[in-house]
Design brief:
Layout lengths: L29 E2 L6 E2 L8 H4 L9 H13 L10 H8 L5 H10 L7 H11 L7 H14 L4 H9 L10 H8 L2 H11 L10 H17 L7
Antiparallel strand pairs: 1-2
Helix pairs in contact: 4-5, 6-7, 6-8, 6-9, 9-10
Length: 223
């Protein structure tokens, strides 16, 4: 079944992901500094899916996702089956520009293993830019959960460490979700609803649970 962001928030009604490709986890391929491909990955000829374009002029994410899913997992893996494209188009609205860029880099058959694809995506954010809304939610979270070290907290939150395993849920929020969703999470899930009285970990878990509820409230049903 296709889903986004590796089901990260699913365990505690946390974030499940935001667009329309399959779930995943970290791996090994790295976007080149020029953004023209993946270091260590062979050049892949454009497919019919890549010939389609999104409104931003790039390859259509849902077409890329459909082709990737079928190539890697078979047609039965498509969420909503024959209605996948309509569902994906709705779910795509929850994604950030950085995430779309990552998908265009990483949705290739060399990355069929979920862990490889996810690490490709995480590493790609090293060459991307966060939006003001994304920086604001990180700042609000860190002000509440690590008030004695908000700058260090923010740096840790947005940085992917491949040796540390799967990144934190706030990392996903900071990089992969659309501004409208991130702003809603900041308003509903930070500020007075958070406290570091029981420690930063407990505070962050409270944010994760709240953010997961916000995310799930926007996930579309099959058309």
């Amino acid at each position: 079944m296709s889903k986004r962001h590796g089901g990260f928030f699913a365990a505690a009604i946390l974030l499940v992901g935001a667009a329309c490709a399959s779930g995943t986890t970290p791996g090994t391929l790295v976007p080149s500094p020029e953004g023209g491909g993946l270091d260590g990955a062979a050049e892949v000829a454009p497919t019919d899916a890549e010939a389609a374009t999104d409104g931003d002029g790039g390859p259509d994410i849902c077409a890329l996702t459909r082709a990737y899913e079928i190539e890697c997992n078979g047609v039965a893996s498509l969420t909503c089956g024959a209605k996948f494209d309509g569902w994906c188009a709705e779910l795509e609205r929850l994604n950030s520009d950085a995430y779309r860029r990552a998908e265009r880099l990483c949705l290739v058959k060399e990355n069929c293993t979920n862990s490889v694809r996810r690490q490709c995506e995480y590493r790609s954010y090293g060459g991307a830019q966060r939006s003001r809304a994304q920086d604001q939610v990180v700042a609000a979270l860190c002000a509440a959960c690590e008030p004695n070290d908000p700058v260090g907290c923010a740096s840790r939150t947005v940085t992917f460490d491949p040796d540390a395993g799967r990144p934190s849920y706030p990392f996903i929020v900071a990089w992969e979700l659309a501004d409208s969703l991130v702003n809603e999470m900041r308003v509903k899930c930070t500020g007075t609803m958070l406290s570091n009285d029981a420690g930063a970990d407990t505070c962050t878990k409270a944010f994760n649970a709240c953010a997961g509820q916000v995310y799930l409230s926007h996930v579309p049903q099959c058309p």
